[in-house]
C-alpha cells in the first residue's frame, strides 16, 4: 500500500470551495464529501447553477452560501483548513461580456482568499489555466514557459487576471509564508457544462443532439487537449494533499484539432449534422497541449479517461438535460 500523502485530507476537515456551483466546483465538492470532508461552498452564481448542487444539498456536511469572493469572506469561512478557488467565469464567449468582473474575480477575489488563508493558516489552491501561456510559441507547454499573452486583447481579462492571481499567490507565499499551490488546468469537459456556455465541447454536443450544424471557428485546424472532469478533480485533490506549490499543468496530453473533435462528437451522438465555418475569434490560441511530466513525477498523476469515453458520459448528461431521446444513427 502506498504511504499517505504529506497533507492528506482528513474526514471531518473543513474545506472551502469557491465557485462551488460551477461545472468544476460542483464535481470537486462531490469528491470532497465522498472523502468525508465538511464542505462550505461559495458562488455568486454569475456562471454557476444551483442545479449542479441539488444532489449535494442532501448531505449534512455540505453548506452553500451565495457570495462574491471579491467581498470579504462570510464568517462561516473563518478557520477553514483548505481553500480551493475555482471561482471565475471560464468560457471566452461568456467572460468577454463581463471582462471587469472576470479580472476582478482573479485579482481582488484571490487577494481576499489569500488574506483568509493567512488568517486561518489554510492551504489555498488556485485553479489557474493554460491561458497563462496565451497563444503559445512553445509546444507542448511546460510550466517553465513564460507565455505569449496579449495584455490588451479580448482574452486579457481572463489570461492576465489568472497571471495576476499566480503572482499574488507567490507573493503571499514569499512575504508571509502563506501555504499556496497553483494548478494550470487545460480545457476540462464533462457533465454539468452549461448548454449555452459557448465553449466548444458543449456547443458541438448540443448542436449535434439538436440536429443543428456544428459551428467550426476558423479552419478547424487549431488544437486543444481535453481533460475529463474526473481526472481534473483527482489532480486538484492530489496537488492539495501534496504540500507542493507548483505551478503544475493538469491536462490530458492527447491533442485534438477542432475539426476532429467535431467528427468525434458526431460519431458519439450518432448525429448527421453538417459542419459550418464561422470566423476565428481574435487571439484564439493555435495549438495547446500540456507537458505533464511534472504532474507525473511530483504528484503521480495522469489522466485516465480517454476522449471518446469522456464524450460519451458528457453526451448522456446533455441528452438528459435537454430532454432528448437517443438520436437515430444514420443508415
Ligand atoms: N470553437 C469552435 N466552435 C465553437 C466554439 C469554439 O470551433 O462553437 C473553437 C475555438 O475557436 C477554440 C476552441 O474551439 O479554438 C476551444 O474554444 P473554447 O471556447 O472551448 O475554449 P478556449 O480553449 O479557447 O478557451
Automatic annotation (TrEMBL):
The keyword Hydrolase does not apply. Keywords: Decarboxylase, Lyase, NAD. InterPro entries: Epimerase_deHydtase, NAD(P)-bd_dom_sf, UXS-like. Residues 15-243 form the NAD-dependent epimerase/dehydratase domain. Its cofactor is NAD(+). Pfam families: Epimerase. It comes from the Bacteria. This is NAD-dependent epimerase/dehydratase family protein. It comes from Roseateles flavus.
